[in-house]
Amino acid sequence: MGAAKVRVMKFGGTSVGSPDRLDRVVEIVAQSRAEGPVIVVVSAMQHTTDRLIRAADLAAAGDLPAAERILDELMDLTTSNGLMGLRRVEERVGGAAGTVQLLPPVREMISQLRQLLYGVSLLRERTPQTLDLVLSFGERLSATVLTGLLQARGLPATMVDSRDWLVTDDGFGAARVECEATQARLAAMAAGWDDALPVVTGFLGRTTDGRTTTLGRNGSDYTATLLAKFLGASEVVVWTDVSGVMTADPGIVKDAYPLSRLSYMEALELVDFGASMFHPRTLIPLIESGIPMRIRNTMQPQDEGTRIDASGSSDRTAATSVTSLENLALLGVQVRRIAKQSPVGGRLLRALEDAGLTIWMSSQSAHGQAFAVAVPVAERGLAERVVNRELELELQRGEVESVTVRAPVTLLTLVAEAMGQTVGVAGRFFHALGGVGVNIRAVAQGASSRSISCVIDAAETQVAVRTVHAAFNFAHQQVSLLVLGKGTVGGHLLSQIAAERETLAARHDADLDVVGVVGRRGVAFD
After folding, report:
1. Taking the model in full, what pTM does it have?
2. DSSP strands (E only) in 123-216
3. Inter-CA distances, 159 with 141, 197, 235, 360, Å
4. Residue 198, C-beta contacts closer than 8 angstroms, at least 6 positions apart
5. What is the pLDDT of residues 122-139, one digit of tens each?
C-alpha cells in the first residue's frame, strides 16, 4: 500500500443507492486516492438487505416464484435503469472502460443467489446460517459494482471479499470477530495489494471452517474500524447522508447543526441512548488504537463533518447533544415495605434481561422502594408479564403495588463530556423542562456523569427537545416577537427586522422570529 498511512473510507447504503450518489462516491474516492492510499468499505445498496430477507422468507415458505421476482427486481435495479444503472454506465464509458466488465459478475452472483433460494424452498427452512449467506450477496453486489465503476474511471480498484480475511465465531447474525486470526490473515492479504485500491465488502466474515457470517448492526462500520486498527490507518471516514453528528434530531429542531468534535466516550454515551449512527463494537478498535473517525456527507463533501477522537472538543464546558428515543413504555413498581427477599430492582433487571428484553433505562430510589424501567413499546406486553411473574409473591402479600405502565413515552437525554465537572448542568436541564410544563416521569444518570436522562410523555417530545436545545445554547437565542400595528411605524419595523435578521444572529447570537402581527383588519399568528 506504500509508505504513506492509508485512510479507510466506508460508504453506507444510502451513499450507493442511486446513480447520482454513485457518481459522487467515485469522485470522492478518486480525489482521496490522489492524496494518498485509500481502502474503501461498502454496505449493501439501500433497501437491498430488506429485500434479501423478504426473498429468503418467501423461499422458506415455499413461494419460490415470489422470491425470484424479488431477485428480478434486484437485477433490474442493479443493471438497467434503476439504482446502480450499470447498463447506462457501460454505455457512457464505452471503449474507455477497456476490459472492464460490469454486468457479467453481477449476473453470475444473481444466478448463484437463485440457486441458493431454490435450495431454501426445497428444505422449507431458513436458518440463521442460511440467512447470513443470502445477505452476503448485498455487500458483494455493491463491492462488485463500485469496483467496476472505479476501474472505468481508470483507478486500480480490486474487489476484496472480507470473508477471505475476517475470521469469526459461528454466532450467525451477530458474529464475534477472532481478532488474532483476522489480523494474521489480513496482514498476509494486504501485503499483496501493492498500489491497488481495495474495495472491501463490509458486514461479512467467515468461520474457520468456511461458513459465511454477518457482524450484525453497523457491521460495515465495524469492518472499517477493524481494517484501520490492523493496518495502522491514519483515520476512518464514514460517508453517510448527514453532515456529522447533530446537536439534536433535525426533524424536531430546525436549527440543529453538526458537531465539529466529539470524544470516543461521548459517542459511546450516545450509543447507550439510542444513536443508530454508532455501535459499541465499531468504536472499540478506534479507542484501542487511537485512530480518529470522521462522519461526513456523501452529497455535501465540502462539509467537514464530525471528528471523533480521544480528546473531543476543546470547550470542556459545552454540552454535546440532545437525544430523543421515542416509542418506549415505562413500567413502574412501588414497594410498600422492604421485601425480605433480594432488592426488587436487581431481581427485575435480571428477569427482564433473561427474557431477552431491550432495556433503555432503569432507575431506582435510594432505598429501593421505587423502580422504573423503559422498554420498547413493542415489548411492553412481555415486560409486564415478566415483572408480574417475578413479583407474584410480593403482590399477593401486598408488599408491592400493582405494576403501572405508561406508553408511549420518550427517553430524553443530554450528553456532555463536562457534565460531571460543571456545576448546575442537571439543574438547568430540569429547570428548562419545568419552565415549559413538561412532566418528568423518571430520571437516571450514570456513574460516568457524561449524560442525564429523563422519561417524558411522547406528546411532549418536540417541545422538550427544542427547550433543552435552546437552554444549552446549541442555537441562537430565540426571540419571538408579536407586532401590534402594521402601519407606518410597524411596517418600517418589520422591514428592518427582515433586513437585519442575519446581522442580529451573527453579532448578537439572537434569532428574531416574528410570530404574529396585529392590525386593524385582524390578526395573523403562527
Report:
1. 0.80
2. 157-160, 197-201, 204-206, 212-214
3. 10, 9, 21, 39
4. 39, 40, 157, 158, 160
5. 999 999 999 999 999 999
